[in-house]
Write a structure and sequence with these properties.
The protein is an alpha/beta fold. The protein has 5 helices and 5 strands. It has one domain (about 1-115): 3-Layer(aba) Sandwich (Hypothetical Protein Ychn, Chain: A). The longest helix has 16 residues, at about 10-25. This is Sulfur reduction protein DsrE.
């Protein structure tokens, strides 16, 4: 489980989270990536393509890798604060809250990283 709290406001931290998630998924690890705070915007179509960081993999490619080998969840409260609804987000992104997060993180063998 990887929880991303940063977006364009902290590009290196944001890119690190997506990179670790995508590499883990490509390695066969089941990944649950949670978008919180400013990373919530990346749940919307086209937003990841706007993100740029020199010497980093493109965010849309990293997200696709995560979706192929796991799941992406947008925090319920973070979505609500930004006026984002389920109908607005990319295919395969769900909106869920703390109860689901706690359920996932307390699963057997789960390790969590927060960026």
């Amino acid at each position: 489980m990887i929880k991303v709290t940063a977006g364009a406001d902290a590009p290196e931290r944001c890119s690190q989270a997506f990179t670790v998630a995508a590499v883990a998924a490509a390695s066969g690890v089941e990944v649950s990536l949670w978008l919180t705070g400013e990373s919530a915007w990346f749940a919307l179509p086209g937003r990841a393509a706007e993100f740029e960081l020199p010497h980093a993999a493109p965010l849309p490619e990293l997200m696709e890798g995560v979706r192929a080998g796991g799941g992406i969840t947008l925090c319920t409260q973070c979505a609500a604060r930004r006026g984002i609804e389920q109908k607005d987000v990319l295919d395969g992104v769900r909106i869920a809250g703390a109860q689901v997060f706690v359920s996932e993180i307390t699963g057997e063998g789960v390790q969590a990283l927060v960026y």
